[in-house]
Amino acid sequence: MNAESEFPIPSGFLCSGLIAGIKEDTTRKDLGLIYTEKDAVLGAVYTRNKFPSAHVQYCKALTPSNSFRALVINSGNANAGTGEAGKKANLKLASALADQLGVSQSQVFTSSTGIIGEAFPIKIIESSLQSLVDGLGSSCLDVAEAIMTTDTRPKLASTTVKSGDKTYTITGFAKGSGMIHPDMATMLSYILTDAPLTMNGIQSLTKKVANQSFNRISVDGDTSTNDSFYLISSNPMAGKEVIAPEIEKGLISVAISLAKQVAADGEGARHLIEVCVNGADSEESGEKVLKSVLTSSLVKTAINGHDPNWGRILMAMGNGLVDSGFEDNEPVSISIQSTPIFDRGEPVRFDRSALSTAMSDFDIRIVVDLHRGGFSVCGWGCDFSTEYVHINAEYST
Amino acid sequence: MNAESEFPIPSGFLCSGLIAGIKEDTTRKDLGLIYTEKDAVLGAVYTRNKFPSAHVQYCKALTPSNSFRALVINSGNANAGTGEAGKKANLKLASALADQLGVSQSQVFTSSTGIIGEAFPIKIIESSLQSLVDGLGSSCLDVAEAIMTTDTRPKLASTTVKSGDKTYTITGFAKGSGMIHPDMATMLSYILTDAPLTMNGIQSLTKKVANQSFNRISVDGDTSTNDSFYLISSNPMAGKEVIAPEIEKGLISVAISLAKQVAADGEGARHLIEVCVNGADSEESGEKVLKSVLTSSLVKTAINGHDPNWGRILMAMGNGLVDSGFEDNEPVSISIQSTPIFDRGEPVRFDRSALSTAMSDFDIRIVVDLHRGGFSVCGWGCDFSTEYVHINAEYST
Questions:
Q1: How far apart are CA B375 and CA B368, in angstroms?
Q2: For position A166, which CATH number holds?
Q3: Per the domain annotation, does A267 fall within a domain?
Q4: Which CATH number covers residue B381?
């Protein structure tokens, strides 16, 4: 099975991607385009960081949209911390692409990812727009590659959904790696579908999908200035929000697959960590515990060392419960790789060496139970390795 | 100048420290004692982590105290996550030491630091109590060494304060290294003084001192289950709170010195980072920005690589400002090592290679200005190195 048949493009979309020369490594793609043949409906959520990039500021004002036609994405430069010059360059890009495509500027969206604070290379990008448009075709793979920075592989996910007597395609792609602790959405993520969605409902649907997927992953606890998640349907419907449950389920499953791929390919990651918090008295309190465990440097380094150091998990849980109604030392339970190691407040004897061996698997699963209520939440992260430090101590110099 | 004259013990105190055999490395001290010849006044702040150690739970109930006599401290075992057995062992320790000293159990405090979740070695400790008491003398150095875990050096600070016609001594010691992101106080820190303090005022004074010192440092963003900061005066005064400004100033200066020593000796640290946030519209908002910059993995790795990657500082500031009244992209300023690199919202041209060279100094100073108001706050952290990962991937196994 090849990538095109595994990740089919939904009807009504065309994509392209190429090497424009923005990245220092001129063998890697760095410019991509998503295009719809007719007006499409778009929802999006963006970073809450107070220094958003030029593209985030620009796109926020256009969201949601029921006349979307094109989204141009570059990697290698974030166009954040670039002041007025960065804003102007972003507008110039949108305007030039609109001219090229014969659509209006307000139908064109932009996304940027890469280093913060460097001047935006608008001339290099402009000179590639003609080739970018000429290359439009029925594959998502080129654009998925064009948005990569320190990612080691493209991230794609796809599913088909039967709704009524029709079958729809949902295909998404994302980039991740560093500065990943989404507080609305992962750095850059796009889900395309030909399933019917309405302008009225798309924004709340986009938030719902993000909250159950991208907002539950963390690589390094740092929220990017560029985080954006777009949901685009080439099948816009008029009227009020009507979203079939099977379509919503399909969208969430594609988003979770992408979120896990981002976590698994976190900078320097040797393990994908799934943390599930059971027995929470609310989704919010479960999520706080989840985030505290997923982001703890000490938990992440222990997993890097295949060390069943559950004391650090307990410590991280205790920090996530600060300001909750939880009493000191309420009895909780912890297991790693299905091995119970702390049971209702008391340590359990376990075979440390066998568990350490089981932790050499790529997939690590930590399950904790607060024994308080009926809410469960799961999220995803990665371990902390010396490679993470190497990658990030040497990124801009 | 030797350690005893540099860090003199305040009058009324005796200390000791020895090798009990709690640590695997039996060449390192692991048991210490602080003793007062008469009833002393004690204030303390403890971790807000919801799984506090047995010693924190026990001491909280005794705080504040105006009949303090002894505090026994062990390293090598945190007595946290140890369930009912841990609580019993802690009580047994307090009771045995009280018998040994001929004081009541409620006059005896305990502190533990080390690995979480291992059974507390009460028998080993009990068998060393006689020697510990016999060793009491006029030096703080042994106990400062006995509380070390992954610390590479003991941390002490001392000053004398003239108040009225008298001169008082303030001497403190602390341990740090990992799981350092105090949310009340650093892991273990003690300040002893013969300056007059009252039972009524000591608790608010202790909080004030902690807030301006230990609560402004971070090594790895993880708040320990054992964090405790004790302020003990051998010169208890009756009546309501009266604290001379010069005494308060002396206490804060000793606490800040200890806090900086803890940050500088963070696990794997190659740099002490001072971050100052100027122009904040409140102390609280300044502290949020401060903590966000100090704890950012990407800022910490950039400094490890001597990389003036100010975009990451901007990103961290933007995350610290979420939910504040700050508008997107308000003009802020950033300098590193006194070199301006971002000025009122616009990038500044600077000599990247010269600044990178300046960042090879041990002391790194980042100053940011929000240009919003008159509040300034400074705090301390350390860089993120591959050694941090090595240390923490291999700590318990």
A1: 12
A2: 3.60.70.12
A3: no
A4: 3.10.20.340
In a domain, B265, yes or no: no
Give pLDDT, residue B228. 85
3-state secondary structure of B205: helix
**Count of all residues that appear for chain A in the document:** 397
B186 counts as catalytic: yes
Domain boundary among B236, B259, B282: B259
**Number of domains observed in the structure of chain A:** 2
Note the pTM of the prediction, 2 decimals: 0.80
Q: Classify residue B102 by burial, with Cβ atoms within 10 Å: 0-12, 13-18, 19+.
A: exposed
pLDDT tens per residue, range A258-314: 888 888 888 788 999 999 999 999 999 999 999 999 988 889 999 999 999 888 899
Final residue belonging to a domain, choices A259, A281, A303 = A259
CB contact under 8 A, A311 and B116: yes
Kindly report, residue by residue over B263-300, the tens digit of the pLDDT: 888 878 899 999 999 999 999 999 999 999 998 888 99
Same domain as A300, residue A278 = yes
From chain B, pick out residues whose CB is under 8 angstroms from the CB of A393.
301-302, 304-305, 307
A126 vs A128: CA distance, rounded Å = 5
- Residue carrying the six token digits 């791929």: A261
CB atoms A310 and B78 under 8 Å: no
Domain match, B286 and B196 both: no
Q: What is the 3-state secondary structure (H, E, C) of B122-170?
A: HHHHHCCHHHHHHCCECCCHHHHHHCCCCCCCCEEEEEEEEECCEEEEE
Asked if A388 lies within 8 A of B389 by C-beta distance, the reply is: yes
In chain A, residues 234-293 whose CB comes closer than 8 Å to chain B: none
Gap from A52 CA to chain B (nearest CA, Å): 7
Residue A1 has pLDDT above 50, yes or no: no
Interchain CB contacts (distance < 8 Å): A and B? 238
User: A343 at the B interface (CB within 8 A)?
Assistant: no
Residues B71 and B128 in one domain: yes
Token pair of B19 as six digits: 């090798």
Query: Does some domain include residue B91?
Result: yes
Model confidence over B40-86: pLDDT tens digits?
999 988 887 888 899 999 999 999 999 999 999 999 998 988 889 99
Chain B hits for A318, CB-CB cut-off 8 Å, are: 49-52, 223, 225
Choice between B121 and A51, residue whose per-residue pLDDT is larger: B121
Q: Residue range B295-310: average pLDDT?
A: 90
CB pair distance less than 8 Å for B223 and A48? no
Tell me the ipTM for this assembly.
0.75
- Range of the structural domain that residue A245 is part of: 3-259
Residue B55's alpha-carbon distances to A324, B59, B112, in angstroms, are 22, 6, 7
Give pLDDT, residue A184.
41
**Cα–Cα distance between B166 and B194 in angstroms, integer?**
11
CB–CB contact B179 A298 (8 Å): yes
